[in-house]
From TrEMBL:
Entry keyword annotation includes Transit peptide: no
Protein name, as recorded: Lysozyme inhibitor LprI N-terminal domain-containing protein
Organism: Agrobacterium bohemicum
Coiled coil: none
Signal peptide: 1-20
């Protein structure tokens, strides 16, 4: 179990350096003028911005590792989570908790990936 956690952590670090946007940039365009309250707060708060990048990178890695059915379920869960995140609006504590909970769920999804031995 610990080995899988270390692999996921290493993949996230590698992916964050090879991500299409600069490290530390949110997973969405902060320059847009029509940002929702949660997105605006994430763009303005470095810690939340970093959490967003880690979450998006982890999600991207998991979608590549999972079988199609599990991938579809993960995408559905992600859409539901994004709707939940929006309800936080500009509440930093709520957003922080939302990201912590999502990363826990993504970590659990990674640990549950079935692989042939």
């Amino acid at each position: 179990m610990h080995f899988k956690k270390h692999i996921l952590a290493a993949l996230i670090v590698i992916a964050s350096y090879s991500h299409g946007s600069p490290v530390g940039a949110a997973s969405f365009d902060c320059a847009k003028t029509d940002l929702a309250a949660d997105e605006k707060t994430i763009c303005e708060n470095r810690a939340l911005n970093d959490q967003d990048v880690r979450m998006a990178t982890t999600f991207d890695i998991l979608t590549q590792l999972m079988a199609m059915g599990a991938r579809d379920e993960l995408k559905t869960q992600q859409s539901e989570w994004l709707k939940h995140r929006q309800t936080c609006a500009a509440d930093v504590a709520c957003l922080t908790t939302a990201y912590e909970e999502r990363m826990k769920k993504l970590g659990e999804a990674f640990l549950n990936i079935n692989r042939p031995l």
